[in-house]
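Quick entry between incubations.
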Amino acid sequence: MKLLSRAEVDELAHLARLAIDDATRERLRGELGAILEHVAMLGEVDTAGVEPMTHAVAMTLRLRDDVPGPTLPVEVATGGAAVVADGGFVVPAVIRE
Amino acid sequence: MDDVTALTATTLAADVRAGRRSARAITDAFLDRIAATDGAIGAYLAVDVDGARAAADAVDAARARGEALGPLAGVPVGVKDVIVTRDLVTTAASKILAGWRPPYDATAVARLRAAGAVVLGKLGCDEFAMGSTGEQSAWRATANPWDLARVPGGSSSGSAAAMAVRSAALTLGTDTGGSIRQPAAFCGVVGLKPTYGRVSRWGAIAYASSLDQIGPLAATVADAALALEVIAGLDPRDATSIDAPAPALTAALDRGVRGLRVGLPREYLPDDLDPDVAAAVARARAILADAGATIVDVSLPHTRYALPAYYVIAPAEAASNLARYDGIRFGARAKDPADLDALYARTRGEGFGAEVIRRIMIGTYVLRAGSYDAYYRQAQQVRALVRRDFDRAFAEVDCVLAPVAPTPAWPTGATPTPLDMYRADVFTLACNLAGLPGLAVPCGATAAGLPLGVQLMGRPLDEATLCAAGQVIERATGPAPRAPWPPRGAA
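Done. Structure below.
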């Protein structure tokens, strides 16, 4: 059975912003390997000239009139956040001196 | 005693409109039913007693004022926890949304309420609708009311279990790869996955946006048809909702199947199919033929590639959709992170369960530079071929008849690997890839009393044919019974 390397799992976890512990990493090596091995059978299908299907319904995106409508009040829109100050979401410092 | 909870949604609404019953009495009966059954079943994650009573009282007050009542007046409904409900805690069965109270109603929920329905509470499911057993919930697994030691199916586990034991008169689920139809079959109820775009996804917590669709689970085909009429329709808030006339489903229910051409796709009837499931399909085939339908063998040659295509496309979309859970704007947030990257990674690592992490990781793998063409693009091309198979079949037939799942409900804890669980979706996910409507309807039971279902799939926007054919099966087999209560095997 295919096993992903620890480095591959770590790279995916970094790209997906997922902190995982060592036991999870080990488990995922085999689980992800088995799933990827299974889906590799897609390569058997001759898809030459087939347009990729991105959506179930052929439609063009509808546009609406550029008119402001009602929106949620700020305190409601931010009401589900863990840390809020002055009507905004608080994040750890991203710029350091 | 008059057991209100045994009645269909259609009957309840008619009784309320005619003044034969009060909405409040009906709601109280269902709240009592929840109290009696849900300790053992675990269908509900939240019950809104006060909100339900207030909504029921409002229906009764409107009637007292002589106002016209909606088509679901006084009908108690349960809503899957991946569909948002204003001020009613909605978590998608995930720790990462623990305690979240949405500031708005999903369009489907708003339409139910506008039609007079009474929201009882939120129904359990696999986390973010990712799973086929209900065991992937962060909070509680739901039991199958027909055998408490078996899974109810998933991911709309609570929606199906609540219908089976009638702790709701109607429920909403979502179906991305079979999540309405498979649990409906496992629990012996009707499940209708509408055409992609038929029902607004506004307020459906996104899993895989090109596949997700909200739909009803119900006691009868007529109830499912009534519910879909209410929730269907264009919504300016969902750019993918289809601008089509509201489906006249209840009016089409009695038109029968005489002259209808029903396809039997050979790829859905493999030699190793569970004999009980094969027997259910054979029974449905005979019922439809006796009622005047012509049964036609058809082929959907790319069927075996639908599963791998789905398990590339759905995780890819999930990895993108679930990027929004960053600990900042809503939901759980990791404590004392060293910096912003640590806040994101720890919030997500601590907040997501194992199956969600697997799918995000797979999605990240197939979308990254270097594997995109081999996996994601190839899967989208295979998706086009799956749809082409159906288009060719529908040139010859009006709908197709197939199993819902390869087996009846299996024992809790008996899913060996993630890939084994994915294989349980093999007969349902092509319908999502192709964007078609699908109906699961009960059709008998195993010798041990486990429900069996069959699936009808139809042309885009042709839910009416599925409902008419489904009702023929339902009439012939008798209306699906309620799960026994107290449950079999209980002390």
